[in-house]
Amino acid sequence: MKWVLILCGLLILIIIWLVLDFRLGRRKHLLKANKVETAILHGELEIYTHGKEFFRSYFTELQHAEKHIHILYYIVKNDSFGQEFFTILKERARVGVEVRLLIDRLGSLTIKKKEVSELKDAGVHVAFCNRVRPPFLFYSAQVRNHRKISIIDGKIGFMGGFNIGKEYIDKDPKLSPWRDYQLQITGESVNFLQSEFFIDWNECALEKVDYRPEYFPKLPKGRIRHRFIPTEAGALEENFIQLIRKSTKSIIIGTPYFIPSAAIFAELLKALQRGVHLTLIVPYTADHALVQEASYRYLRRLLKAGALIYQYKNGFYHAKTLLIDEKICDIGTANFDRRSFFLNKEINCYIYDRSFIEKVMKVIEEDILDSKRMTLTQLNKPNLLRTVKETAARAVCHFL
To answer: 148 an active-site residue?
Structure first.
């Protein structure tokens, strides 16, 4: 009995510590977070939806870099594909190209000292962002840099959902083929991606970088109107609420994880009540425990309110998009979940060009054809294991 009381006391102390750590860490984060967004920019955009096609183009651009390569990834895996990526970076560094690689410490946990040493020996500058640090160990472990951007010679940029790992090129049997949305960007807006990379680099790396003119060449304007919005510490929730409130006809959401905040969910229900058509695309197969079960209580209410929900079945759906009235299209790194809303650093591109949005709509139509429509009957069918998982997911949904 004595040991039981001691264990209970320890458990209570741990819970108190976790709650205080998280709340105080979040308060500090909110105080230091900056809200940034660009004015309307003009450039050229291309969208990639398949990993093999994207990485073929991406690796070719890396191999032809002449001056500098600046890369930020959430996940770089230490597998055969990750080694191929490292080989390209080392080769370019050895011929005098400035190569900087910034990766999230926990997202890229499989990268060992050996790989980092080999990169540095070849001349690659490597830094880890968002390390777990005191005094708020638990909170700092939750806040990740989920941005995925690359800038090559200051002239071409990439951003979107793809990370570096074999699953992203269809070499994971469970998750293949991998479906994602990735943007290739040229034109004046590449300069903003460059500056955003340096902000994150200088925040985390011991070796700071000066903003030299060579990093920001004069770039032509393109045809496609868009802007970039980096977010952290709750700013994404505010932005999405404003977008949803603008809707008068339709909302389309594509996301691998649907765990909305209470405020965003309320806005979606209000949109349905005023006659807006809501379509949601989510995966049929989950890549993480409890993420599907965490979404079910929201999906039930949306189905009752008249939303259309599709589960993508042709592989794993990892795309991240939000379309409002087919006039505003968001493609970026943020999921439609609380981790992206409140914890992660994200970056999204809001696109206002009708012709490009039509191209995205065709992609979405293909995804819906590869999906199965979800029904309320399906979700309400008695299932004890699912009920247990839903209960567990509800308790930890803020961190999924």
So the answer is: yes
